[in-house]
Amino acid sequence: MRNSLADVVVAALRVLDAQGLENCSMRRVAAELDVQPSALYHHVPNKQSLLALMADQIVQGVGPRTDRALAEVPVAARLDAARRLCGDLREAMLAVRDGADVVATATAFRTGRSRVEDELAKLVGGDAARTLMFFTFGHAQSTQTHRQAAALGALVGEQVASAAPVPGGEASPAGSDLDASFGRGIELILGGLVALQHAPAVDLSAPSH
Fold first, then answer.
1. Distance set, CA 97 to CA 104, 124, 133, 199 (Å)
2. By the 8 A CB rule, do 82 and 120 touch?
């Protein structure tokens, strides 16, 4: 039976989970499906396109946190929606091996824009959305690198505790440092945005479209 595009994406995510982004090649994805690499090109023109589809799958559950018309949403509610959107994005990326690298790379391929960034831009404006995205990507990538180092035995003592999740995927009490630092960073960005909201360059009352 011929594989569908969805089959290709699922197989690519299996390879990613087993071997990481560095080894997630078109050849290995084809082997996972027991087909020749040329068969994949009936569905995707290149690896960049496949990475974009993988990124879409990773963040598919990350969406807007309000269904009200934006003009009716108070500034404080927009900031809270942006805060939760960034948190959801980070958790979605951390749930998949090298997920942050995949999503960040796919966003770069798409000239730096993504669906999630567009949602953030509606809430807080384009410049703030881009800043929040860069911070969320960078923090998630750093967290995944830290956890992978711990899994390989490259960290010791408190470093291991700060990296290792407990069973079920939740951070340990010591590991909550990483989550806490993410929260503090988001608050710093949003706090700066609030401080600037009366400046001509930042107007939360007129979300970008």
1. 13, 30, 19, 41
2. yes
Give just the sign of the alpha carbon dihedral 135, 85, 181, 99: negative
Distance of CA 164 to the CA centre of its chain: 19
Q: In sequence order, what are the residues at sequence separation of 6 or more whose Cβ sits closer than 8 angstroms to the Cβ of residue 47?
A: 25, 26
Instruction: Spell 124-157 as b/e; 16+ CB within 10 A means b.
Output: bbbebbebbbebbbebbbebbebbeebeeeebee
Locus of tokens 């690896």 = 47
Give pTM, 2 decimals.
Answer: 0.80
Residue 171 has pLDDT above 50, yes or no: no
pLDDT digits (tens, 9 = 90+) for 6-41: 999 999 999 999 999 999 999 999 999 999 999 999
Per the structure block, which two tokens stand in for 5? 């595009």
**Residues for the chain: how many in total?**
209
Instruction: Report the alpha-carbon distance of residue 28 to residue 57 in Å, rounded.
Output: 19
Residues 193, 186: Cα–Cα separation, whole Å: 11
- 154 vs 148: CA distance, rounded Å: 9
Residue 10 and residue 18: Cα distance in Å, rounded? 12
